[in-house]
Design a protein that fits this description.
Layout: E1 4-7, E2 10-13, H1 24-28, E3 31-39, E4 42-43, H2 46-59, H3 68-81, E5 87-94, E6 112-119, E7 129-135, H4 150-161, E8 166-171, E9 174-178, E10 182-186, E11 191-194, H5 205-216, E12 220-223, H6 228-233, E13 236-241, E14 245-252, E15 255-256, H7 264-280
Parallel strand pairs: 7-8, 7-14, 11-12
Antiparallel strand pairs: 1-2, 1-6, 3-4, 3-5, 5-6, 8-9, 10-11, 10-13, 13-14, 14-15
Helix pairs in contact: 5-7
The structure holds 4'-deoxy-4'-aminopyridoxal-5'-phosphate (PMP).
């Protein structure tokens, strides 16, 4: 069944949505995006995603083409029009185009605003994922959520080529994050370790929420870099992202973690995130 998508102020069947071949999102990856989870037809952690979007736009000197109220209304309208119970809403804003290709930012181009829904079951119990490590070859501003996703896409394909699920990215000997998620380990003395925030990683909205939930339950947290070797010795490993929530990692570069089974910390945090996310969803 065809979805109803939103493009530049108009709700339309997906087949009718088209953008210019000169759009800078297409020619330069000059665009930012967000993905917000939907549970029970409501938006999870929406305020965090909206705030990060505003920051990403600002960092790229892209004017915000709507008010916060308008953007929320568009999300809600898409949920209603597509009867979305569970899944996500993808949002992308590119710098648009002035009808030619030029490295210089156009002065008068209207941004291209595109949103669509993706139905997906998010609340299934998780059996855990197997990851490989690959060099992190991305640019230096990973804190901005741009659509330059070729490097992570290639990392994921490298994992798939080995029959695994995903890749953890390594720079200067330390894990930065997963191809499309934040990475964590649980140490032998039960500390949750995840990379500190900087331009080297995306500041995950789920990361912030999960660390808050963990801290509120007196779990110890250390925000610092860790190596693949440390992760392979860890009690548990897991990842977080908006549409996976908390997913255990049960193997890293062929070494089983937590006996190759989902660990209790990751499982508990996933349950907690879903429970609290549901309560606070709007
Ligand atoms: N890091 C990267 C590189 C990502 O692409 C994502 C998901 N878009 C995340 C982390 C997780 O961020 P969030 O929890 O906001 O989905």
């Amino acid at each position: 069944m065809s979805r109803t998508v939103y493009l530049n102020g108009v709700y339309m069947p997906e087949e009718e949505a088209t953008v210019s071949v000169f759009d800078r999102g297409f020619l330069f990856a000059d665009a930012v995006y967000e993905v917000t989870a939907v549970l029970d037809g409501k938006l999870v952690d929406y305020a965090g995603h909206a705030a990060r979007l505003t920051r990403s736009l600002g960092e790229l000197k892209l004017a915000k083409p709507f008010t916060d109220e308008e953007l929320l209304a568009i999300h809600r309208e898409l949920i209603t029009r597509n009867n979305l119970e569970q899944g996500g809403i993808y949002l992308q804003i590119s710098r648009g185009s002035e009808g030619d290709r030029d490295f210089v930012f156009p002065k008068h181009a209207a941004p291209t605003v595109f949103l669509f829904t993706q139905a997906k079951t998010l609340t299934d119990p998780k059996k855990g994922m197997r990851v490989i490590s690959v060099p992190d070859i991305r640019w230096g501003r990973r804190d901005i959520k741009t659509v330059q996703l070729l490097a992570p896409s290639m990392a994921k394909m490298a994992a798939k080529a080995e029959g695994k699920d995903d890749a953890w990215l390594v720079e200067d000997g330390y894990v930065t994050e997963g191809s499309s998620n934040n990475a964590y380990i649980v140490t032998k003395d039960d500390k949750i370790v995840t990379r500190n925030l900087s331009n080297s990683i995306l500041h995950g909205i789920t990361r912030a929420a999960v660390l808050k939930l963990a801290a509120e339950r007196n779990m110890e947290i250390e925000e610092r870099a860790f190596t693949i070797e440390e992760a392979q010795q860890a009690k548990e490993a897991f990842i977080t992202s908006a549409t996976v929530f908390v997913c255990p990692v049960v193997e890293i570069d062929g070494v089983a973690i937590a006996g190759g089974e989902p660990g209790p910390v990751a499982t508990r945090l996933n349950d907690l995130y879903i429970e609290e996310g549901r309560k606070a969803a709007i």
